[in-house]
């Protein structure tokens, strides 16, 4: 090296690209060492070996599962089934699913089976008497709104004074008022899940930005507001 000259590694002038496999090294310096020797077959061999390591259920991954949901235990009434033909697909860690449900799945790999039970407090909470409200009947026939059929077991959406919407079901009514149960349909229930992790993949940039799973082949378009898939 000549006097007054500084030798630079060419990679130091480029931002180091993030690669998920870097997280699997014991320390970041080891990853840097292998990255900066990228022309060395050692790096490529290490990279290939890390590609074979299964992904796990964790944040920023899209998870596909099949499951059966029964009330109370494995022998309870079947409430819901998502099979291989119609699996449940979701972006993990968005806060849109039951925290206890995600906690039970966290760390599992493709092909792993699971079976667990959630108490009412871990699921949708107990049935609350204060969630049963009486609403004046004229609310369901106000001018400018679509009339709601007032009958038992009809599902309705009510808007409170703050503009928040609440889903409920009509449980009783008379000429003056309608009684609506705003408890979740599974409130007070013990839920038993049994299923399999079918697939795990990294979330796309669009999915991370929108904070939900986007169906394969979906058209990317401007997002004019918060929406559901």
How is the secondary structure organized here?
Blueprint: H1 28-36, H2 41-51, E1 61-71, E2 78-82, E3 88-91, H3 99-105, E4 113-118, E5 132-136, E6 155-159, E7 165-173, E8 177-181, E9 191-202, H4 205-210
Characteristics of this structure?
disordered C terminus; single chain; Chitinase A, domain 3; alpha+beta; five-stranded antiparallel β-sheet; 4 helices; Thrombin, subunit H
Mean of pLDDT: 78
Characterize the largest beta sheet: strand count, sense, and whether it forms a barrel.
5 strands, antiparallel
Give the CATH topology of the largest domain. Chitinase A, domain 3
Architecture of the largest domain, CATH level 2?
A: Roll
N-to-C order of helices and strands:
HHEEEHEEEEEEH
Sheet/helix structural class? alpha+beta
What is the tally of beta strands? 9
Q: Tell me the name of the CATH class of the largest domain.
A: Alpha Beta
Q: Write down the Rg.
A: 26 Å
Strand content: 25-35%
* Total count of helical runs of at least 4 residues: 4
Helix content: 10-25%
Low-pLDDT runs: 1-28, 221-229
End-to-end gap: 60 Å
Shape: globular
Domain count: the total is: 3
Structure summary:
This protein has 229 residues and is of the alpha+beta class.
Tell me what you see in this structure.
The structure is a single chain. The protein is α+β, with helices and mostly antiparallel strands and 229 residues long. It folds into 3 domains: 15-51, no CATH class; 61-121 and 188-210, Chitinase A, domain 3 (Roll), CATH 3.10.50; 129-181, Thrombin, subunit H (Beta Barrel), CATH 2.40.10.330. The protein contains 4 helices and 9 strands, in the order ααβββαββββββα. The chain has helices at 28-36, 41-51, 99-105, 205-210, and strands at residues 61-71, 78-82, 88-91, 113-118, 132-136, 155-159, 165-173, 177-181, 191-202. The longest helix is centred in the N-terminal third of the chain and has 11 residues, at 41-51. It is globular. It starts with 27 loop residues before the first helix and ends in a 19-residue tail after the last helix. 9% of the residues are buried. Residues 1-28 and 221-229 have low confidence and may be disordered.
């Amino acid at each position: 090296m000549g006097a007054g000259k500084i030798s630079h590694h060419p990679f130091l002038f480029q931002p180091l690209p993030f690669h998920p496999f870097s997280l699997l090294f014991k320390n970041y310096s080891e990853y840097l060492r292998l990255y900066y020797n990228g022309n060395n077959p050692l790096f490529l061999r290490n990279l290939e070996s890390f590609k074979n390591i299964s992904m796990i259920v964790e944040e920023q991954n899209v998870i596909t599962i099949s499951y059966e949901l029964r009330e109370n235990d494995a022998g309870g009434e079947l409430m819901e089934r998502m099979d291989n033909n119609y699996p449940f697909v979701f972006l993990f860690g968005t806060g849109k699913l039951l925290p206890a449900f995600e906690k039970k799945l966290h760390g599992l790999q493709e092909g792993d089976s699971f079976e667990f039970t959630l108490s009412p407090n871990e699921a949708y909470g107990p049935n609350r008497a204060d969630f049963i409200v009486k609403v004046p009947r004229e609310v369901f026939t106000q001018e400018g709104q679509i009339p709601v059929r007032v009958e038992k077991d009809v599902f309705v959406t009510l808007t409170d004074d703050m503009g928040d919407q609440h889903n409920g079901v009509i449980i009783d009514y008379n000429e003056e008022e309608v009684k609506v149960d705003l408890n979740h349909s599974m409130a007070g229930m013990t839920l038993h899940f049994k299923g399999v992790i079918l697939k795990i993949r990294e979330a796309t940039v669009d999915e991370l930005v929108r904070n939900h799973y986007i169906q394969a082949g979906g058209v990317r378009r401007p997002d004019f507001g918060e929406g559901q898939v």
